[in-house]
Amino acid sequence: MTLPMLLDDALITTPAGFALRVSLPWIRSMPLAAVTDVSVSIDGEQAAVHAVVDGREVPPAELAAETSWWFIQDRVELRGDAEVSPGAHDVALSFALVVPYLQAGPAGPLTLPFRMERALVAGEATAVGGAAATMPARTTDAAEPARAAAALPSAWPLSASAFNWTPQVIRAERTAEDIAVAVAAEGISRTLEIEAGQVWRGFPEPSDDEVDRLRERLTAAGGAVTIVGASLDDWALPARRRTETERLGFLEPQLRAAARLGAIGVRVPFGQAGPELLRLAQPVLEELGVVLFEEIQGQQTLDSPAVADNLALLETLDDPRIRVLIDISMLMPSLPPTYLEELRRGGLDEELVRRLERQWRAPETHEAVVAALRGGRVPPAVHTLYMNLLVRFGRSDVTDLEPLLPLTSGVHLKFWDLDDTDGRVSRPIADIGSALRRVGFTGTLTSEWGGHEWLDADPATTTRAHLELARRALTEASVPAV
Questions:
Q1: Which has the least CB within 10 A, 37, 251, 353, 401?
Q2: Cα–Cα distance for residue pair 74/76, rounded to 1 Å
């Protein structure tokens, strides 16, 4: 995976021993209380460590009592008193991360294990500062996306997602704000989606100053935000389910930040809010003039009882400020070749990989995927990556989505790599484009890259190429048949 836990300069020597500076291998900021079961070894020897929190040394077992947040661009320092000599050392780090917005069952939130082993050269202790603030000048080709998009219907603005830059956000060579502004300043896209848990240090309650600074800088670069990716942490930590009022209290600051930013609205997972929270949120949405988008994606299907019930709820509410966002990860005709190669390298059974390669949509393939997981036949090196087969990669056809289309005001043009053999990337875009044309769609369409989980590619180059491919596919789809 390219979401890094240990950067090249992670290991440093200190007068009292060593420090290991750990990056958050996740897609948004997390509560420090989410970190459990920390283990560090150096050259095969287990090392006792303390986490540094606001200048205090905290035993890892006591992180569960902390109320502060781990901002995605910060590194948590683990200090130990073992002597570490200058030079290269084999370092192993593992911990578990409780994900408070993902449920593992009725008893509590999902907990995921993370482990990384790599050789690190111990450096001398230096001040650990924030990301360097560098802002590229606006390039002369900034008007190109606008000209290229002219062939699309005017009600189909094509945007880019700042989520595509997640590994760069974590590496923190530039601030997350700089990265987002550069999407517009470098002419990649004038409009963009952002992730609240990536761009604002104050998440989930960003300050007015943070929001205003981003809006002003984007405006100066000729850019604007369409949708803010919000989060709804149903679980407080230590694990306790939030009440509906508390859930609204978690979401509302993000709604207000989106309104202040000038965004159309915020995005949450399809069905997560539920009827009571949606009704509580309706007056706030009306007051702020923003839309709550419910994103349906991956293996969610309309024949699922939970999805069907939520769709019926949205139809009953019939509120223009509560809309659907479709992620075309639902429409994958085949799996990304780069993903399959990563599974091979990680040691997954070759027979299963070939089945995934040739018969992705077959029900028998899904059964084989589940059987391998339950049977313990998934190598630890690709265990987290393997879960995409059960969550993020869908098998639906565009005709299955027809009941959603009247409620849809946003689409994620999800892609994983740019291998378009047999239209693997472009066909789902064209299919959804044709379906949207039939219903007179107006709304946002956004290029969103998910493949950075296993691909170390330049996000700017990759996003530009995908936007051009998407424009071609959507332009063809938007032309009525003669």
A1: 37
A2: 7
Q: What percent of the chain has pLDDT over 90?
A: 87
Query: H/E element holding 19?
Result: strand 17-23
Q: What is the bridge-based pairing of β-strands 75-80 and 291-296?
A: unpaired
Number of Cβ within 10 Å of residue 191's Cβ equals: 22
Taking only the tens place, the pLDDT of each residue in 227-270 is 999 999 999 998 899 999 999 999 999 999 999 999 999 999 99
Backbone angles phi, psi at 470, to 5 degrees: -65, -40
Distance CA 260, CA 215 (A): 8
Handedness of CA 362, 367, 370, 371 (dihedral sign): negative
In angstroms, the CA 44 to CA 39 distance is 12
Contact by Cβ (8 Å): 184, 159: no
H or E, element range at 94: strand 87-105
Which residues, in sequence order, are CB contacts of 162 under 8 Å at separation 6+? 176, 179, 180, 183, 192, 193, 194, 195, 198, 199
Task: Give the angle subtended at the CA of 35 by the CAs of 32 and 40, to the nearest 5°.
Answer: 120
Q: Minimal CA–CA distance to 141: which of 189, 72, 208?
A: 189
Taking only the tens place, the pLDDT of each residue in 290-308 is 999 999 999 999 999 999 9
Dihedral in degrees, nearest 10, Cα atoms 426, 430, 432, 433 = 130
d(CA 93, CA 114): 8
Q: Which long-range contacts (CB under 8 A, 24 or more apart) does 167-171 make?
A: 167/2, 167/3, 167/4, 167/452, 167/456, 167/459, 168/459, 169/72, 169/73, 169/198, 170/3, 170/4, 170/23, 170/24, 170/25, 170/72, 170/73, 171/4, 171/7, 171/23
Q: First-to-last CA distance in the chain?
A: 47
Distance in angstroms (rounded) separating the CA atoms of residues 401 and 404:
5
Q: What CA–CA distance (Å, rounded) separates 222 from 187?
A: 9
Average pLDDT over residues 74-92: 95
- pLDDT for 143 beyond 60: no
